[in-house]
Design goal:
There is one protein chain. By secondary structure, this protein is mainly β. It has no helices and eleven strands.
Amino acid sequence: QVQLVESGGGLVQAGGSLRLSCTASGRSSSRQVMAWFRQAPDKEREFVAAVNWSGGRTKYADSVKGRFTISRDNAKNALYLQMNSVNPDDTAIYYCAARANYNLEIVPSQYDYWGQGTQVTVSS
């Protein structure tokens, strides 16, 4: 029983920065791994980044590697995505997700819990 709520989306110009947040509630054992996914219009939901409980392991999609940073603060039950050097291709609805297993999965179906999403729009 996990609930996830994203925030921090909005309009940002190309080259700028944005930080997304996800606040979690419910059993912590069901969110050992947390991740960010995104979905643009007429496209499938795609993996962005994932992080384990301690923050010691991370995984990034090639399209965001070096620009985005995923982190978490378990004392605050929070997940973050720092987005730097954004471009119009980053425009999408961003979702946070959680799973109980240990692996940093990149397939959406491997995650058990999802937030409602937050819109990020990057102007050119």
